[in-house]
DNA sequence: CTGCATGCAAACCGTTTGCATCCCC
DNA sequence: GGGGATGCAAACGGTTTGCATGCAG
Protein backbone atom coordinates (compact mmCIF):
# COMPACT_ATOMS: atom_id res chain seq x y z
CA UNK A 1 0.00 0.00 0.00
CA UNK A 2 1.36 3.46 -0.87
CA UNK A 3 1.81 6.12 1.78
CA UNK A 4 -0.57 9.03 1.24
CA UNK A 5 1.18 11.74 -0.83
CA UNK A 6 2.18 14.87 1.04
CA UNK A 7 -0.66 17.27 0.21
CA UNK A 8 0.95 20.19 1.99
CA UNK A 9 3.61 21.46 -0.39
CA UNK A 10 5.27 23.26 2.49
CA UNK A 11 8.08 21.70 4.37
CA UNK A 12 8.63 23.65 7.59
CA UNK A 13 12.33 24.37 7.46
CA UNK A 14 14.28 26.57 9.83
CA UNK A 15 14.66 29.17 7.06
CA UNK A 16 10.91 29.40 6.42
CA UNK A 17 10.13 29.55 10.10
CA UNK A 18 12.54 32.43 10.69
CA UNK A 19 11.34 34.22 7.54
CA UNK A 20 7.76 34.17 8.76
CA UNK A 21 8.73 35.35 12.22
CA UNK A 22 10.79 38.26 10.88
CA UNK A 23 8.16 39.15 8.29
CA UNK A 24 5.60 39.45 11.07
CA UNK A 25 7.89 41.74 13.03
CA UNK A 26 8.94 43.91 10.07
CA UNK A 27 6.84 46.59 8.43
CA UNK A 28 6.06 45.63 4.82
CA UNK A 29 9.71 44.84 4.08
CA UNK A 30 11.23 44.43 0.66
CA UNK A 31 12.91 41.10 -0.07
CA UNK A 32 16.30 42.64 0.71
CA UNK A 33 15.18 44.15 3.99
CA UNK A 34 13.81 40.78 5.06
CA UNK A 35 17.04 39.13 3.92
CA UNK A 36 19.08 41.42 6.19
CA UNK A 37 16.84 40.65 9.14
CA UNK A 38 16.88 36.90 8.60
CA UNK A 39 20.62 36.92 8.02
CA UNK A 40 21.19 38.14 11.57
CA UNK A 41 19.78 34.82 12.74
CA UNK A 42 20.79 32.49 9.88
CA UNK A 43 23.96 33.95 8.51
CA UNK A 44 24.40 31.47 5.64
CA UNK A 45 20.99 32.02 4.07
CA UNK A 46 20.97 33.15 0.43
CA UNK A 47 18.85 35.80 -1.25
CA UNK A 48 17.57 33.16 -3.65
CA UNK A 49 15.99 31.26 -0.78
CA UNK A 50 14.26 34.44 0.39
CA UNK A 51 12.81 35.14 -3.05
CA UNK A 52 11.84 31.53 -3.69
CA UNK A 53 10.05 31.18 -0.38
CA UNK A 54 8.33 34.57 -0.56
CA UNK A 55 6.99 33.57 -3.96
CA UNK A 56 5.77 30.19 -2.67
CA UNK A 57 4.19 31.67 0.45
CA UNK A 58 2.43 34.37 -1.54
CA UNK A 59 1.17 31.81 -4.05
CA UNK A 60 -0.23 29.64 -1.28
CA UNK A 61 -1.86 32.63 0.43
CA UNK A 62 0.14 32.49 3.67
CA UNK A 63 1.48 35.98 3.04
CA UNK A 64 0.67 38.87 0.71
CA UNK A 65 2.83 40.21 -2.09
CA UNK A 66 2.11 43.92 -2.26
CA UNK A 67 1.80 45.45 -5.69
CA UNK A 68 2.64 48.93 -4.51
CA UNK A 69 4.47 51.71 -6.26
CA UNK A 70 8.24 51.95 -6.21
CA UNK A 71 10.83 49.72 -7.81
CA UNK A 72 10.81 46.91 -5.25
CA UNK A 73 8.04 44.55 -4.26
CA UNK A 74 7.03 44.42 -0.62
CA UNK A 75 5.60 41.63 1.47
CA UNK A 76 3.02 41.56 4.22
CA UNK A 77 2.22 39.01 6.92
CA UNK A 78 -1.29 40.40 7.26
CA UNK A 79 -3.41 38.70 4.61
CA UNK A 80 -6.82 40.24 5.29
CA UNK A 81 -7.61 42.88 2.67
CA UNK A 82 -6.54 46.35 3.80
CA UNK A 83 -5.13 49.54 2.33
CA UNK A 84 -1.71 51.13 2.46
CA UNK A 85 -0.06 54.50 2.61
CA UNK A 86 3.38 55.04 1.17
CA UNK A 87 5.73 57.91 1.96
CA UNK A 88 6.68 59.73 -1.22
CA UNK A 89 10.04 60.68 0.29
CA UNK A 90 11.41 57.64 2.08
CA UNK A 91 9.26 54.86 0.59
CA UNK A 92 8.01 53.58 3.95
CA UNK A 93 4.78 51.59 3.60
CA UNK A 94 2.26 51.37 6.43
CA UNK A 95 -1.17 49.94 6.94
CA UNK A 96 -3.99 52.41 6.96
CA UNK A 97 -6.70 51.67 9.46
CA UNK A 98 -9.65 52.11 7.11
CA UNK A 99 -12.48 49.76 6.39
CA UNK A 100 -12.34 48.19 2.97
CA UNK A 101 -14.83 50.05 0.84
CA UNK A 102 -17.35 47.38 0.01
CA UNK A 103 -19.20 49.34 -2.63
CA UNK A 104 -16.16 50.02 -4.66
CA UNK A 105 -15.98 46.61 -6.29
CA UNK A 106 -19.67 46.63 -7.10
CA UNK A 107 -19.31 50.07 -8.68
CA UNK A 108 -16.32 48.96 -10.70
CA UNK A 109 -18.08 45.79 -11.82
CA UNK A 110 -20.91 47.84 -13.24
CA UNK A 111 -18.45 49.97 -15.18
CA UNK A 112 -16.35 47.28 -16.87
CA UNK A 113 -16.57 43.95 -18.63
CA UNK A 114 -13.76 42.67 -16.43
CA UNK A 115 -14.22 39.82 -14.02
CA UNK A 116 -12.99 41.72 -10.99
CA UNK A 117 -10.88 39.78 -8.51
CA UNK A 118 -9.69 42.48 -6.14
CA UNK A 119 -8.66 46.03 -5.61
CA UNK A 120 -6.14 48.03 -3.67
CA UNK A 121 -6.05 51.63 -2.57
CA UNK A 122 -2.66 53.19 -2.12
CA UNK A 123 -2.30 56.62 -0.60
CA UNK A 124 0.85 58.66 -1.00
CA UNK A 125 2.06 61.40 1.24
CA UNK A 126 4.79 62.46 3.60
CA UNK A 127 5.28 60.37 6.71
CA UNK A 128 5.60 62.28 10.01
CA UNK A 129 9.35 61.73 10.12
CA UNK A 130 9.89 63.19 6.65
CA UNK A 131 7.60 66.11 7.47
CA UNK A 132 9.76 66.87 10.50
CA UNK A 133 12.91 66.58 8.41
CA UNK A 134 11.50 68.98 5.80
CA UNK A 135 10.48 71.45 8.51
CA UNK A 136 13.90 71.35 10.10
CA UNK A 137 15.61 71.87 6.76
CA UNK A 138 13.37 74.87 6.22
CA UNK A 139 14.22 76.39 9.61
CA UNK A 140 17.88 75.75 8.88
CA UNK A 141 17.61 77.77 5.71
CA UNK A 142 15.74 80.65 7.32
CA UNK A 143 18.45 80.88 9.95
CA UNK A 144 21.12 81.11 7.26
CA UNK A 145 19.32 84.09 5.73
CA UNK A 146 19.63 86.20 8.86
CA UNK B 1 21.27 93.34 -20.34
CA UNK B 2 20.86 89.61 -19.94
CA UNK B 3 18.33 87.74 -21.97
CA UNK B 4 15.58 86.31 -19.79
CA UNK B 5 16.51 82.76 -18.81
CA UNK B 6 14.54 80.01 -20.51
CA UNK B 7 11.97 79.16 -17.87
CA UNK B 8 10.51 76.31 -19.84
CA UNK B 9 12.96 73.47 -19.39
CA UNK B 10 11.43 71.73 -22.34
CA UNK B 11 12.93 71.99 -25.77
CA UNK B 12 10.38 70.72 -28.29
CA UNK B 13 12.40 68.24 -30.27
CA UNK B 14 11.08 65.89 -32.92
CA UNK B 15 11.59 62.96 -30.54
CA UNK B 16 9.51 64.52 -27.76
CA UNK B 17 6.79 65.55 -30.15
CA UNK B 18 6.45 62.04 -31.57
CA UNK B 19 6.64 60.50 -28.09
CA UNK B 20 3.71 62.59 -26.89
CA UNK B 21 1.66 61.81 -29.99
CA UNK B 22 2.23 58.07 -29.67
CA UNK B 23 1.66 58.11 -25.92
CA UNK B 24 -1.73 59.73 -26.51
CA UNK B 25 -2.65 57.02 -29.03
CA UNK B 26 -1.38 54.09 -26.96
CA UNK B 27 -3.09 52.55 -23.95
CA UNK B 28 -0.96 53.04 -20.83
CA UNK B 29 2.15 51.72 -22.55
CA UNK B 30 5.32 50.60 -20.86
CA UNK B 31 8.52 52.41 -21.87
CA UNK B 32 9.36 49.55 -24.23
CA UNK B 33 5.95 49.52 -25.87
CA UNK B 34 6.22 53.26 -26.48
CA UNK B 35 9.75 52.77 -27.81
CA UNK B 36 8.49 50.28 -30.39
CA UNK B 37 5.76 52.66 -31.52
CA UNK B 38 8.05 55.67 -31.76
CA UNK B 39 10.70 53.64 -33.53
CA UNK B 40 8.35 53.05 -36.44
CA UNK B 41 8.49 56.79 -37.08
CA UNK B 42 12.02 57.66 -35.85
CA UNK B 43 14.02 54.54 -36.42
CA UNK B 44 17.28 55.80 -34.88
CA UNK B 45 15.78 56.75 -31.50
CA UNK B 46 17.33 55.06 -28.45
CA UNK B 47 15.64 53.57 -25.42
CA UNK B 48 17.62 55.95 -23.21
CA UNK B 49 15.94 58.92 -24.83
CA UNK B 50 12.54 57.38 -24.17
CA UNK B 51 13.29 56.83 -20.48
CA UNK B 52 14.92 60.21 -20.01
CA UNK B 53 12.05 62.09 -21.59
CA UNK B 54 9.33 60.08 -19.87
CA UNK B 55 10.99 60.93 -16.57
CA UNK B 56 11.23 64.64 -17.41
CA UNK B 57 7.66 64.83 -18.67
CA UNK B 58 6.33 63.04 -15.61
CA UNK B 59 8.33 65.34 -13.32
CA UNK B 60 6.94 68.42 -15.04
CA UNK B 61 3.39 67.07 -14.91
CA UNK B 62 2.81 66.83 -18.66
CA UNK B 63 2.21 63.11 -18.36
CA UNK B 64 1.57 60.62 -15.56
CA UNK B 65 3.88 57.85 -14.41
CA UNK B 66 1.61 55.07 -13.22
CA UNK B 67 2.67 53.30 -10.06
CA UNK B 68 0.72 50.18 -10.89
CA UNK B 69 1.48 46.59 -10.08
CA UNK B 70 3.64 44.46 -12.34
CA UNK B 71 7.35 44.69 -13.05
CA UNK B 72 7.26 47.55 -15.55
CA UNK B 73 6.16 51.12 -15.08
CA UNK B 74 3.45 52.47 -17.35
CA UNK B 75 2.78 55.96 -18.61
CA UNK B 76 -0.40 57.87 -19.25
CA UNK B 77 -1.14 60.96 -21.34
CA UNK B 78 -4.26 61.63 -19.27
CA UNK B 79 -3.17 63.60 -16.23
CA UNK B 80 -6.50 64.19 -14.49
CA UNK B 81 -6.84 61.84 -11.52
CA UNK B 82 -8.59 58.61 -12.42
CA UNK B 83 -8.50 54.94 -11.51
CA UNK B 84 -7.24 51.90 -13.36
CA UNK B 85 -8.01 48.26 -13.82
CA UNK B 86 -5.30 45.76 -14.65
CA UNK B 87 -5.77 42.32 -16.14
CA UNK B 88 -4.23 39.71 -13.88
CA UNK B 89 -3.52 37.47 -16.87
CA UNK B 90 -2.17 39.67 -19.66
CA UNK B 91 -1.22 42.82 -17.71
CA UNK B 92 -3.32 45.18 -19.85
CA UNK B 93 -4.11 48.42 -18.01
CA UNK B 94 -7.24 50.43 -18.78
CA UNK B 95 -8.95 53.47 -17.40
CA UNK B 96 -11.99 52.83 -15.31
CA UNK B 97 -14.78 55.32 -15.81
CA UNK B 98 -15.46 56.01 -12.13
CA UNK B 99 -15.60 59.29 -10.33
CA UNK B 100 -12.70 59.89 -8.01
CA UNK B 101 -13.94 59.19 -4.50
CA UNK B 102 -13.62 62.59 -2.86
CA UNK B 103 -14.22 61.37 0.66
CA UNK B 104 -11.49 58.86 0.56
CA UNK B 105 -8.66 61.34 1.10
CA UNK B 106 -10.50 63.07 3.93
CA UNK B 107 -11.09 59.70 5.59
CA UNK B 108 -7.47 58.72 5.20
CA UNK B 109 -6.28 62.08 6.52
CA UNK B 110 -8.25 61.54 9.70
CA UNK B 111 -6.62 58.13 10.14
CA UNK B 112 -2.96 59.01 9.73
CA UNK B 113 -0.37 61.59 10.61
CA UNK B 114 0.74 61.64 6.99
CA UNK B 115 0.48 64.71 4.84
CA UNK B 116 -1.52 63.03 2.10
CA UNK B 117 -0.69 64.05 -1.46
CA UNK B 118 -2.71 61.63 -3.52
CA UNK B 119 -4.21 58.21 -3.86
CA UNK B 120 -4.79 55.62 -6.51
CA UNK B 121 -7.22 52.75 -6.75
CA UNK B 122 -6.19 49.81 -8.82
CA UNK B 123 -8.59 47.02 -9.59
CA UNK B 124 -7.44 43.63 -10.78
CA UNK B 125 -9.41 41.13 -12.76
CA UNK B 126 -9.65 39.27 -16.03
CA UNK B 127 -10.11 41.37 -19.13
CA UNK B 128 -12.84 40.23 -21.56
CA UNK B 129 -10.27 38.82 -23.97
CA UNK B 130 -8.64 36.66 -21.31
CA UNK B 131 -12.05 35.53 -20.07
CA UNK B 132 -12.87 34.36 -23.60
CA UNK B 133 -9.54 32.61 -23.89
CA UNK B 134 -10.09 30.82 -20.58
CA UNK B 135 -13.59 29.78 -21.65
CA UNK B 136 -12.33 28.45 -24.95
CA UNK B 137 -9.54 26.53 -23.27
CA UNK B 138 -12.16 25.01 -21.00
CA UNK B 139 -14.39 23.96 -23.90
CA UNK B 140 -11.35 22.56 -25.64
CA UNK B 141 -10.64 20.36 -22.65
CA UNK B 142 -14.25 19.19 -22.32
CA UNK B 143 -14.20 18.17 -25.97
CA UNK B 144 -11.07 16.09 -25.44
CA UNK B 145 -12.85 14.18 -22.67
CA UNK B 146 -15.56 12.89 -25.00
C1' DC C 1 28.29 79.22 -30.50
C1' DT C 2 26.53 77.26 -26.39
C1' DG C 3 24.32 74.02 -23.96
C1' DC C 4 20.65 70.97 -23.82
C1' DA C 5 19.23 66.59 -26.25
C1' DT C 6 20.42 62.44 -28.51
C1' DG C 7 22.29 57.65 -29.75
C1' DC C 8 24.90 54.16 -28.12
C1' DA C 9 26.62 51.05 -24.91
C1' DA C 10 28.00 49.82 -20.52
C1' DA C 11 26.60 49.75 -15.79
C1' DC C 12 23.17 49.03 -12.38
C1' DC C 13 19.62 46.91 -9.46
C1' DG C 14 16.11 43.78 -8.26
C1' DT C 15 14.80 39.27 -9.30
C1' DT C 16 15.04 34.60 -11.28
C1' DT C 17 17.26 30.35 -12.36
C1' DG C 18 20.59 26.28 -12.79
C1' DC C 19 23.16 23.28 -10.29
C1' DA C 20 25.57 20.71 -6.85
C1' DT C 21 24.83 19.76 -2.11
C1' DC C 22 22.12 19.27 2.00
C1' DC C 23 18.63 17.70 5.03
C1' DC C 24 13.82 16.61 6.33
C1' DC C 25 10.58 12.92 6.07
C1' DG D 1 17.33 6.70 0.59
C1' DG D 2 14.79 10.04 -2.12
C1' DG D 3 12.88 14.37 -3.24
C1' DG D 4 12.22 18.76 -1.95
C1' DA D 5 15.02 22.87 -0.01
C1' DT D 6 19.22 25.36 0.20
C1' DG D 7 23.53 28.20 -0.92
C1' DC D 8 25.96 30.01 -4.41
C1' DA D 9 26.68 32.33 -8.53
C1' DA D 10 25.56 33.35 -13.03
C1' DA D 11 21.88 35.10 -16.00
C1' DC D 12 18.09 38.05 -16.81
C1' DG D 13 14.96 42.13 -17.68
C1' DG D 14 14.01 46.75 -16.87
C1' DT D 15 16.06 51.10 -16.03
C1' DT D 16 19.78 54.49 -15.49
C1' DT D 17 23.97 56.69 -16.71
C1' DG D 18 28.44 58.33 -19.02
C1' DC D 19 30.16 60.04 -22.99
C1' DA D 20 30.97 61.70 -27.58
C1' DT D 21 28.18 63.83 -31.07
C1' DG D 22 24.20 66.45 -32.87
C1' DC D 23 21.13 70.08 -33.19
C1' DA D 24 17.83 73.85 -31.50
C1' DG D 25 17.89 78.54 -29.96
Structural class of chain A: alpha+beta
Helical fraction of chain A equals: 40-55%
- N- and C-termini, Cα separation of chain A: 89 Å
Low-confidence spans of chain A: 1-7
- Order of strands, main sheet of chain A, comes to 4-3-5
Number of strands of chain A: 5
State Rg of chain A.
Answer: 20 Å
Q: Which assembly state applies to the chains in this document?
A: homodimer
> What can be said about the biggest beta sheet of chain A?
3 strands, mixed
The most extensive contact between chains is:
A-B, 36 and 36 residues
Helix and strand string of chain A, N-terminal first?
A: HHHEEEEHEH
Count of DSSP helices of chain A? 5
Shape of chain A: flat
Instruction: Report mean pLDDT of chain A, rounded to a whole number.
Output: 89
What fraction strand of chain A?
A: 15-25%
Task: List the topology elements.
Two copies of one chain form a homodimer.
Chain A: H1 14-25, H2 31-41, H3 47-59, E1 64-66, E2 74-76, E3 83-87, E4 93-96, H4 102-111, E5 115-126, H5 128-145
Chain A binds a DNA duplex (25 and 25 nucleotides) through residues 6, 9, 11-13, 15-16, 30-32, 44-49, 51-53, 55, 71-73.
Amino acid sequence: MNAAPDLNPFRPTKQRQVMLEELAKANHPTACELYERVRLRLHRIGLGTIYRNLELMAASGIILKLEVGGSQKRYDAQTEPHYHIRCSRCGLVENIDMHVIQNVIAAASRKTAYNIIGHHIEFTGECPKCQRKARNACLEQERSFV
